[in-house]
Amino acid sequence: MDTNEEIKKIVREKYGEIVTHGKEAAQSACCSPEATTCCGPDADLTIFSEDYSNLEGYNPDADYGLGCGLPTEYAKIKEGDTVVDLGSGAGNDCFVARQITGKKGRVIGVDMTPNMIDKARENAQKLKLENVEFRLGEIENLPVRNEEADVVVSNCVLNLVPDKKRALSETFRILKKGGHFSVSDIVTYDVIPTGLREEAALYAGCVSGAMIKDAYLEEIRNAGFTNITIQKERKIELPDDLLNKYLNEKQVREYKDDFAGIASITVYGEKPCCEDNTNCC
């Protein structure tokens, strides 16, 4: 089995387990994209999550606390839009997006974990939302037509995708000309020492697949997106005992500086209307 497929298998199994055992499973285990097994009892996949409860359309049954931002809050969704959520889980962001798009809009969630798709469909049925659908598929090969989406959202999922270049290419493909995305994800400000990175992955599984911020934004530019903007940035604090285990006093101070460490960012980008990358629509 190739490494990318191993990573997908690990993530799929862990997120399937979360559906079975609930939010407690997310708070007591992690999936490191660079590991061969899921991690141990001290990890917490919910450590990066933000509070959705004040957003209209929020459904607690769809919230496992697995996100690292509130992309739907910043996604500039309008009534009647078609919205695609990459890595939709149990449907949390989809239901918030549906509240904005209304009956005239359409929301499509894509997730590669069958258990999550089943749970999301169950939630949608309970809410009687006929214009929200969930499709089983991978972000690197989205089951969505060319230029089907006005808006794409994603919450702490791209960092888990092995082939980010392909995932961004697929995002570009499914967006209409002049469409846009808003994605929350985990990034690092610099190279994190190997030992600290591995243990941070035990502390919170989203760290392992995180790219350096500048490289992450460059990948987005290379995919063809324009008007790239960081809508929100929130530094993630790791405990001192974890830092002290791998860094000396000077390195700890540098790590805690604004230009070091780990952060959650919400990024906005647009698909140009014209082939010369101008917004001529």
Mean pLDDT: 84
Query: How many β-strand stretches?
Result: 8
At the fourth level of CATH, the homologous superfamily is Vaccinia Virus protein VP39
Largest sheet: 8 strands, mixed
Number of domains: 1
Radius of gyration: 18 Å
Task: Give the CATH level 1 class.
Answer: Alpha Beta
User: How many helix segments?
Assistant: 10
Structural class: alpha/beta
Overall 3D shape: globular
The fold-level CATH name is Rossmann fold
Strand content: 15-25%
Low-confidence stretches: 27-43
CATH architecture: 3-Layer(aba) Sandwich
How far from one another are the termini? 45 Å
Order of helices and strands: HHHEHEHEEHEHEHEHHE
Q: What is the helix fraction of residues, given as a range?
A: 25-40%
Structural descriptors:
single chain, 281 residues, alpha/beta, Rossmann fold, eight-stranded mixed beta sheet, 10 helices, 8 strands, 35% helix
Can you walk me through this structure?
35% of the residues lie in helices and 21% in strands. It has a single domain, classed as Vaccinia Virus protein VP39 (Rossmann fold), CATH 3.40.50. With 281 residues, it is an alpha/beta fold. Helix 1 packs across helix 5 and helix 7 runs antiparallel to helix 9. Strands 1, 2, 3, 4, 5, 6, 7 and 8 form an 8-stranded mixed beta sheet that branches. The termini are far apart. The chain has helices at 3-21, 23-26, 71-74, 92-101, 114-127, 164-174, 194-203, 213-222, 240-246, 249-256, and strands spanning 82-86, 106-111, 132-136, 149-155, 175-188, 211-212, 226-236, 262-270. The protein contains 10 helices and 8 strands.
